[in-house]
Amino acid sequence: MTVIIDFPWYFVILCLLLGVAYAVLLYWLGLRRQKEEPPFSRGLTIGLSALRCIAVAAIAFLFLAPLVKRQQNRKEKPIVVVAQDNSKSLDYCADSAFYHDQFAADLDALCERLGKDFDVVRYSYGARVMKLPADDLVPYGDQLTDMGAVVDEVRQHYYHRNVGALVLTGDGIFNQGRNPVGMASELTFPVYTVAMGDTTVRHDAAIADIRFNRIAYLGNNFPIDITVNAAKLKGQHSTLSVSLDGRKLFSKQITFADDLFSTTENVVLEAQKTGVLNFVVEIAPLPSEQNVRNNRRIIPIEVIDGHQKIAIIAAAPHPDVAALRAAIERNQNFEADFFLAKDFSKNPKDYDLLILHQLPSKTAEAGLDVAALLKSEVSTLFILGAQTDLARLNALHAGLEVYSRIERQNEVSALFNKDFTFFTLDDDKVQSISSFPPLLSPFGEYKLDGNGQTLFWAKVGAVNSRMPLVAVTQQQGHRAVFIAGEGLWRWRLADWQNNQTHDNFDQLIDKLVVFTALRVNKEKLRVDMKHLFGQSEAVTIEAQLYNDNYEPVNTPDAELTLKSADGNTTEKKFFFNRTADGYALNLGQLPSGNYKYTASTRFNGHALSSSGSFVVEEQQMEALNLVANHSLLYTMATTTGGQMVDAHNVAQIEELLHQRDDMKTIIYSETRYSDMLNLPMIFILITLLLGVEWFLRKYNGEV
C-alpha cells in the first residue's frame, strides 16, 4: 500500500509541526497559565501532548486529500458452463425415463466432480434460458426450444471472462430463434455437446403449419392454408378436416405418395357468425402412428360484421355522385343509398357514413339541417364545390374551415403528403392520382383542425399551395373527411383512360370510406389482448379507462374475472396493476383451453365492464419433429474445437476437459486508488487517540 499526495513532501512536516504547536499551546502554555502548579505529572503531560499531536497532525494530513494505492491479485478458475435441454421433445422420446432418472443423476455427478477444478455454472434452456437452480423448473416441460438463446446468453454474460468450455446437452432440435451453429462459431471457447434423443424416423402425420388471417368479415369467404407432413406412411390415406363447434366445414382425403410427404391445402370457408370462432384443424390419426400429438391444431379467427350502410346526399344531381357510388359498391361490405337533400328524411343513425356533396349548399335544401346531421355523431365525408356555402360550413366547426372574400374556383391537382399516417396508399396508386386532371376547388384560406392530417395537398400549376385538397380529421371518436374540390368523375374516367382500370380511383375512395365509416369503439372501459396464446406463453392483458372527454384515467381499481368457457373450473378474480395511463395484468401461463373474461370497475358512480374470450393452445411444436438432429450437435462441437459424446457416456466430458492445455487459472493484477478519507481505520485511529486522551484527563480529574 502506497500513500500519494499532490503536495510537496514538506507539507507532511508542516502537518507534524501543526500538531506539535497545538499540543504545546494546550498542555505546556494554556493549562500552566490557568494554575500555579502543573495539573499533570511531567510524564503524563508528555503522553497527552503526544496523543493530541498525532491526532491533530492526522486531521491536518487528511486536508491534503491523500490517495492510497493498493495492488491486488485475484485468481479466476476456468468457467465451465453446463446448459441442459429442458424441452418437451425429450419427454416424448423413447428414452425419456432414462433422461429423467439416470442421465439427470450422471449430469449432477459430473458437475460436482468438475466443480473441484473449475467454476461450474448451470443453465436450462427451452422456451427460455434460466440459471439453475430454478424453483419453477418442470423437468423437460418447455413447449419450445431456442438453442441460439442459450449460446447468446453465455457469449454476452461471460464476455472477457475465463470461460473454458460450454457443455451443451440436447437433441439438436430447435423450433425458435436463430440457428445455433452460426452463433456458436462466434464463441472464443469450445462447445462440447451431449447427444440426446432418438434419430429414428417413425411413422407420423402432422399438421406442420397453418397460415390464416386473424380477422374475417361476416358473410365473406376467407382462406386457410394448411400444410400437412407425413413420414414413412407411403401409400396410406388419412382425412384432413376443419370443424367448428363439432360441425365439419371441410373434409378431404389425402394420400401420402412418398415416405417423406408434404402438401398444402387451401381451404376456403364462409364467415357465418360474428365473434371469436375457434376452428379445429385435424389430420385423422393412423393406427401405425406413434405420435398423434401433432395431428390437431386450434386456430381462433375473429369474425366482424363489416357490412356498412352509406348515404350519399347531394344538393343537386352531379356526375360525382355516380363515380362515388360505383367506387363504393365495388366493396361487397358497403351498401350505398343516394338522396337529394330535399328528399332525405331518414334517421342519420341508420347509416355508418354520410357523404355530403356540396352541402351545406347556397341553394335551398328543403329543410335539411346539416348541423343536426352532425349532432348524430355519424362520420361524415364532405365534398366541396362551387355550390358549397363556405360561411355555413365554417359555422359547423366540422374540422375544415375555408375563408374567402370572392367566389372563385381554382383548378388544383393532387400532391401526395408523405407525412400522412392514418392509412397507407400504394406508390403506384399515388403516382396515378397525382397525374389525374385538376379538380375545381373553392378559392380561399384553409384552416384544418389541429387533429387533422392532409392526404393530398392542392397543387396550383406546379406550385404547392400548402392548402389541403384531401384531408381527414378525428375528434373524440368522430371522423370526417374533406375533399376540397368537385370533378371526381374526371378522375375515374382518367384512371380508365390512362390505366384501363378504375382501381386507382376506387382504392382511394375505398380507403377514405373504410377509415371514415369504421365504427370507433366508444366504450369507456376497453380491454386489449390477443385471442390466442401458447401454453408456454404468459397471458397478458391491458385495459384502458376513459372519462367523459375520452381522456385516459386509472384512478379507480379494476378487476378481472376469469373462467373456462366450458364452466368446469372455478371462477377466479384478479386485480389489474396500474400503468402510466391504464391498467395491465399478467396471468402467467395457463392450462390449455378456452377462457372467458370480464373486466370491471366503477367510475363516477357507474359500473363499467368489458367481456371477451381467448384460447390457450396446447402447443405441439415439440411434437412436430421428434427425430434428433445429432449432425447439428456434431457441427457445433467440431467447428469450435470441442467434441460430441453420447448421453450414456456423459462422464467422458470430465476427461476431455482435463486434457485441454488452455483451461488454466488466470491471475488478474489490479491497481486501485482510493481516497484515504474512505478508509475506516483512519477515523478509528483518530477517535482512539482522542478517546484515550480524554480518558486519561478524566481519570486525573482534568477535562
Percent range of helical residues: 25-40%
Estimate what percentage of residues fall within beta strands: 35-45%
Q: For the record, give the distance between the C-alpha atoms at the N and C termini, rounded to a whole number.
A: 38 Å
How many discrete structural domains? 5
Basic shape: extended
Largest sheet: 9 strands, mixed
As a whole number of angstroms, the C-alpha radius of gyration is: 40 Å
The structure class reads: alpha/beta
| CATH third-level topology of the largest domain | Rossmann fold
Question: Averaged pLDDT, please?
Answer: 88
Low confidence ranges:
none
How many strands in all? Answer: 38
Strand order across the largest sheet: 17-16-18-19-26-25-24-21-22
Q: In CATH's first tier, which class of the largest domain applies?
A: Alpha Beta
Helix count from the secondary structure assignment? 17
**CATH superfamily label of the largest domain:** Class I glutamine amidotransferase (GATase) domain
What CATH architecture label of the largest domain applies?
3-Layer(aba) Sandwich
Jot down its keywords.
703 residues; alpha/beta; 5 domains; six-stranded mixed beta sheet
Structural features, described:
The chain is α/β, with parallel strands linked by helices. It has 5 domains: 2-72 and 673-699, no CATH class; 78-200 and 627-658, von Willebrand factor, type A domain (Rossmann fold), CATH 3.40.50; 204-304, Immunoglobulins (Immunoglobulin-like, Sandwich), CATH 2.60.40.10; 308-517, Rossmann fold; 525-617, Immunoglobulin-like (Sandwich), CATH 2.60.40. Helices cover 26% and strands 36% of the residues. The protein has 17 helices and 38 strands. It is extended and about 125 Å long.
